[in-house]
Amino acid sequence: xxxxxxxxxxxxxxxxxxxxxxxxxxxxxxxxxxxxxxxxxxxxxxxxxxxxxxxxxxxxxxxxxxxxxxxxxxxxxxxxxxxxxxxxxxxxxxxxxxxxxxxxxxxxxxxxxxxxxxxxxxxxxxxxxxxxxxxxxxxxxxxxxxxxxxxxxxxxxxxxx
Length: 161
Known about the structure:
It is globular and about 45 Å long. 15% of the residues lie in helices and 42% in strands. The longest helix is centred in the N-terminal third of the chain and has 9 residues, at 4-12. By secondary structure, it is mostly beta strands. A seven-stranded antiparallel sheet has the order 3-2-6-9-10-5-4. The protein has a domain at 4-36 and 60-115 and 137-156: Electron Transport, Fmn-binding Protein, Chain A (Pnp Oxidase, Chain A, Roll). It has helices spanning 4-12, 59-65, 78-85, and strands at residues 16-17, 19-24, 30-35, 38-42, 47-50, 67-72, 97-99, 105-107, 112-124, 127-138, 147-150, 153-156. This is Nitrilotriacetate monooxygenase component B.
């Protein structure tokens, strides 16, 4: 049996980007989760995936909404990363966002945004594997520094030589 604490420590040793996945709940309010388990999957068709925990209160809303926006966070979006990592309602209190033409809630300042429709869902142990069909891509007007997650900490990706 793999000890969960050591597993988390080893997996946390792999630097990753940080995303926030958002959608609207049935009342029209923004909901979302912070996810470092995110990946490109396919170019043709254009697919990406992220893996929410089944225990997340946001997971069933994301699954049922059938569309969502994945935000690749920039280094100065730590407030957004921590806010959407919490449980409960009102995660977006004080966070600026607007609706896209596709009806997805979009956070301001992200490194990039990927708007998706639910393509497939698979079981992944204690997490779901959500595959999204890419429907729209948004890049910022100005280059921004991406956020990275490593060993339990969020920070700026240092300039690559």
